[in-house]
Amino acid sequence: MEPLNPVEARILGSLVEKDITTPDYYPLTLNALANACNQSSNRDPVVSLSEEAVVRGLDLLREKKLAFLFQGADSRVPKFGHRIAESFELGRPETSILCVLLLRGPQTPGEIRGRTGRMHEFASLADTEASLSALIARVPPLAARLPRQPGTKEQRYAHLLSGDIPDAPQSADPGPAAAPAGPDNARLSRLEQEAAALRSEVAELRQQVAELRRQIG
């Protein structure tokens, strides 16, 4: 498969996210999909894609068999969906991981676990790492473990749907030394992950309420 460009990756991740978190509004209209791609919460980087750019990206994704056009009898406008799970034979855990990597870029296992909560609840960090290992073990691999950055404790992971990831550049400044592992640090890390997940959920709910108000208005 040809590597995804950044627009295709953002569209695919947005379709997967909305499919799982707001199934009543999926498949998405072009307007809803553009809003999903451009929302400021749960996205890194934040972008501003025109509907024309989204249409071009959808055309490329459909050529790759990763997206589809839906025009049912009850639908007055065309709607769009994804086929990532079928195309790669993925379960919900792996699909959820790829979704957050597509939408937010490289992340640590802890960040991934905290940010996939609304799509799939990983019971433990070990479960998250097991699903990441499954994606890495695919032929060809769908994810990769990145070199550890100076001053950090955890390695980050990235998806490979956009092609191979070059080695991350090493900073000249090593930064502060990583804090030693221990019960207090582990508890703090867990609380930070839970807080990040709650902030993401609140931002997503605000986005859904705003979308509902637009539709009602």
Secondary-structure blueprint:
Layout: H1 6-21, E1 28-29, H2 30-38, H3 51-63, E2 67-70, E3 79-82, H4 84-88, H5 92-104, H6 109-115, H7 125-137, E4 143-145, E5 157-159, H8 183-216
Antiparallel strand pairs: 1-3, 2-3, 4-5
Helix pairs in contact: 1-2, 1-3, 1-5, 6-7, 6-8
Care to describe what's here?
This protein has helices spanning 6-21, 30-38, 51-63, 84-88, 92-104, 109-115, 125-137, 183-216, and strands at 28-29, 67-70, 79-82, 143-145, 157-159. 51% of the residues lie in helices and 7% in strands. A hairpin with an 8-residue loop joins strand 2 and strand 3. The longest helix is centred in the last third of the chain and has 34 residues, at 183-216. It is built from eight helices and five strands; from the N terminus they run αβααββααααββα. It folds into two domains: 6-87, Winged helix-like DNA-binding domain superfamily/Winged helix DNA-binding domain (Arc Repressor Mutant, subunit A), CATH 1.10.10; 90-164 and 183-200, Orthogonal Bundle (Arc Repressor Mutant, subunit A), CATH 1.10.10. The strands form two sheets. Strands 1-3-2 form a three-stranded antiparallel β-sheet. It has a two-stranded antiparallel ribbon with strand order 4-5.
